[in-house]
Each structure stands twice: as structure tokens, then as C-alpha cells.
Amino acid sequence: MKVNMVGAINNALELAMREDDRIVILGEDVGRDGGVFRVTDGLIDKFGAKRVVDTPLEESGIIGASIGMALAGLRPVPEIQFAGFMLLAFSQLVNHAARYRTRTRGTMSVPMVVRTPVSGGVRTLEHHSDSPEALYSHIGGLIVIEPSNPYDAKGLLIKALRMQDPVIFLEPTKLYRLFKQEIPDENYEVPIGKANYMRKGNDLTIITYGTMAPLVQEVADKKNVSADVIDLRTINPVDEQTILESVKRTGRAMIVHEAELSFGVGAEISARIAEKAIFELSAPIIRVASPSIPYPFPGYEGFYLPNAKKIGDAIDRILSV
After folding, report:
1. I need a surface site. Which of 146, 153, 155, 255 has the fewest CB within 10 A?
2. Which of 96, 128, 138, 257 is catalytic?
3. Rounded Cα–Cα distance for residues 168 and 11 (Å)
């Protein structure tokens, strides 16, 4: 079937719920309205209000209840309408969900998948365009996933729904309906912690994910550069092996992400490359990201976000060294 990311995630949830009756979806408007982006559309009609639960506007309560449900034997899938609002449940995620396996010496786990839209480019209001992947990746015990296409979104979500640990599943809002892709009708998994080569080349490695992945590939194709384009897919754990193998072969590394530059995923990857592959580099590592200021009002998105020109200029700069 050929679907967009919304359709792929909806299909993954339906297949998983048919496979495992412990899976329960909960969140604001996820039932009758099908979620703010209609990702859960139709699921309440197929599985009933006991498995697709509309909740009050209470993010801390949604995550807290989900932790309790997971500890009691269910597999909750809480949806937070926008990533900016998930900070209201940060304590629940960090102090409880992420720590329970360690706290109980491995005797208890929290198998839940927290879904939330992230990133900008669609002219939303404040708190609706955050890119918090680095924030949650810093927390030991949380798995952080951010797909860039429908195929990966379905396979990664199915894999996440079968795991025993808490997963933060970040869904780029701009990519929800940006394009369609042919995907299998049946269940399949995409491995967590394994990056994907979107493109192969010899002169440059570009590491990216989420909203930037299709844009980076488009720029590399238009410029006809011989570049590896690596889509991380999983932010934590990051696929260090694939990154280092590519960088050691090409000799140049560039990281592109939508989130703010400072203390971000690009900084972590740069540090790992510097520690383990610095003598194979032919040029300094370059990062292309958003400036380290609060996300702007919609009219200024074009100045704030990485775009084709910024990425293209960075490619020219690193290849000129």
C-alpha cells in the first residue's frame, strides 16, 4: 500500500493492537476525534473506548497513568498533542519511567511508547514546533526514535511496541503528509539503533534525521555530490558504528538537524567522531542547525530553520578544504 506517515503510523497501531490486546492508546482527543493530526483516526471504532481512551488535558497525568498501566501488565501508548507540552510530564518520564528497570534491579520494566509530534516548518504557534530529541536522549533508560519516512515510521513503531523499555517516539509534523511511500501491508520491524544509508558516496558523510533527512538527500542529489547521507532513525541509542565507518572512508563529516545547535545531537556526534576518527578527517566537522534561541513566530521560520541554501553552502564549504 502507498501511504503517508500518518497512514503508516495508524496502520502500525492497528496491526499491533490486533496482535497484542494489552496495547492501550490514551491521550487528548485520540478517540472520537482521532487525534489532533488524525493519526489515531478510526481506531476507537475498531477497538472500543476501553483501548482508545480520551483523557483530560493533563500531560503529567497521562504519562503517570501510563507508567502505572505498564507496571500493571498493559502496554500503553500515550499521545502528547505537541512535544512542547510533554515537558509538563518530564518528571514522570525521567524520575520514574526511565529508572524503573534500574530501581527494581531488573525485576520490573515500563513497556510504553510515548508518541508526540515534533519540529516545525508548518507555521504553528509557540510550544508546537519544539525539537526535544537531545533532551530525552540525555536521560539514561529512555529510547528515542525519530523516523523520516512512512516505511521507517511503521517498522520502528512496531518494533518499539514490542520492547520492554520506555520509548519516546517523535513524529515530525512536517513529514506527516509531505509524501507517500510504498510499504508492506503486513507487520514488519525496522531495527532500533541501526541507521539507514539514504545515499552512498565517497567524498563526504552527512548525518541527519527527521525533517532534515529528505531535504538533505534532495540537496545532495541536486548538487550531484559524492556523499553518504545517513539517516539516524534512532537518536538514542545512536548507531556510532555506521557513522564512524562512513566518516573514516570519506574523510569529511557534516551533521544536519532542525533542533538548536548548542548541546544538541550534532554536538554529541561531533564529539564521538573527534574522539574515534579525528586522524581520518580531511576537514573540520561542520554542523548545520537552527540558532540557539527560542523557536520564532511563524513568519520568521524561514530565517530560523536550516534550508536548502544553508545545507548547500555547508557542502561547498567542507568540500573546498
Report:
1. 155
2. 128
3. 19
